[in-house]
User: Fold this.
Amino acid sequence: MTRRYANGLTILSGYTFSKSIDNGSGIRTLGSDPLFPQNAYCLSCERGLSVFNQFHRFVTSVVYDLPFGKGRKYLNQGIASRVIGGWELNSIVTVASGFPLTVVPGSDRSQTGNGYDRTNATGINPALGNPTPAEWFNIDAFSLQPLGSFGNAGRDVAIGPGIFSWDFSTLKNFNFTEKRYIQFRFEAFNFLNHPNFGDPNLTLGNNRVDGNGQPIVGTGSFGTVTSTRAGIDMRELQFSLKLVF
Assistant:
């Protein structure tokens, strides 16, 4: 959706609903997708969500020139025009689903030396209705496979934390002449200070397991989130002055 500039306001919004499936997503920096199959003789076993898949992604940007000040609809004369007139507001909001993740045993259970084993699936849905950093997915959905065998859990079956970020800025030009002015700018990144969590720990072997190979809750870091997402910091504020002549 696009609203072309009119009455000081312009909006650009986009929503994407998608699902991407492959048997290997290539070299990348997202998620935890292994570079190679756990069993080179069964590429069909690798069929799953692409590591870059996002089910939902919404981004909107807004630019609004407040209707106050010289040449605008309200308060276009006098001291009030100089003080509260000429301000511009800018905003970018991003909301998106998390990326797919692959759970691993943390040891060479297949005893093949390839290092790309997955765990077994127990038949329980790994998705939780209310995930928290203490348990982002249902760890009971996974178990260690017997030694000498490949895991039957699918590739990229867990979904990591989503993204919510609001960047905001405002600016005002203080004119000396038509071509010379000082621009004041205030910018806020992640304005609401919303935590964007990093990926959870995906190594089942970080927990102790019971006799069935099931991870025991509270005995390790498996399934927990201990960091925030790289590239989206907590709230950052900055002010600047720029002389244009």
User: Anything to note?
Assistant: The mean pLDDT is 91. The radius of gyration is 25 Å. The first strand starts at residue 2 and ends at 6.
